[in-house]
Design goal:
The protein is an alpha/beta fold and about 250 residues long. It has two domains: about 200 residues, Spore Coat Polysaccharide Biosynthesis Protein SpsA, Chain A; about 30 residues, no CATH class. It contains six helices and eight strands. The protein has a six-stranded mixed sheet with strand order 2-1-3-7-4-8, sandwiched between helices. The chain starts with 19 loop residues before the first strand and ends with a helix.
């Protein structure tokens, strides 16, 4: 894993213990892969990986699965996650964004338990390869930068944005990064600036970012930089087959 400058001085041992909840959103419906969150990888349902990683974290206090599906609920309970509610159906449609799902979960925990965590970790089941220490480092990163709204894991892209185009109205290629350089696509590889994409492996945010800024990230986002070879997101049958191969015992 590469280390960003902002993480060079990160001292895990100096971080005080605070209340941190992991929320794993796992709805029952899926289009690309039927019942994706329950598909088996190496004799284990996909959602189990995120639950086990959250439970193995040294910083996370509670692990909550937000689902609308009774079978996912029972599987999650079997792997020792909490499922204190079934998500309302209107929050389980494929067009629903993360924000209302997390607002619902946090409001429920406060109203039912009086529980108000200081940080929220968002773990997507579709990214099953994730080391618990990465989670703890991401939490510590946000903990040590109180001015920040959130942390998102990022990686360098395999295809650099300077070499990407749109097709304009005349049918010609138009570089998407021409506002940065007049001819970005002709630069040598070693002259390309470092750029990062959001890899969906780990998000850490503050409840006040969610409720006050009505955002999962806010505008002050810290990067947790990961090796792109450690990242995959299951969205298609091809992704699933790769994950099965990658995660087989070697």
């Amino acid at each position: 894993m590469s280390i960003s400058p902002i993480r060079n001085n990160l001292d895990m041992h100096s971080s005080k213990k605070i209340e941190v909840v992991a929320i794993i959103p796992a709805r029952g419906g899926s289009k690309g892969i039927k019942r994706k969150n329950l598909v088996m990888i190496n004799h284990k349902p996909l959602i189990a990986y995120s639950i086990e990683q959250a439970l193995a974290s040294k910083q996370i206090n509670r692990v909550i699965v937000s689902t609308d599906d009774e079978e996912i609920k029972q599987v999650s309970l079997a792997y020792k996650a909490e499922v204190p509610f079934l998500r309302p159906k209107e929050l389980a449609e494929d067009h629903v964004l993360d924000l209302p799902v997390f607002e619902h979960a946090l409001k429920f925990l406060e109203e039912k338990d009086g529980y108000r965590p200081e940080m929220v970790v968002h773990l997507r089941p579709t990214s099953p390869y994730r080391k618990p220490e990465w989670i703890d480092e991401s939490i510590a990163l946000l903990m040590q930068h109180p001015q920040a709204d959130s942390v998102r894991s990022v990686s360098q892209p395999h295809q650099h944005p300077y070499r990407m185009f749109r097709i304009n109205e005349g049918g010609f290629l138009s570089p998407i990064m021409k506002h940065e350089h007049p001819t970005p696509h002709v630069l040598r590889r070693q002259d390309l600036p470092l750029m990062y994409y959001y890899n969906c492996v780990i998000d850490v945010t503050r409840p006040k970012t969610i409720f006050s800024k009505k955002s999962m990230t806010g505008d002050k986002i810290l990067p947790y930089i990961m090796n792109p070879d450690d990242v995959f997101d299951i969205d298609s049958p091809k992704d699933l087959e790769f994950a099965k191969f990658f995660m087989e015992p070697k």
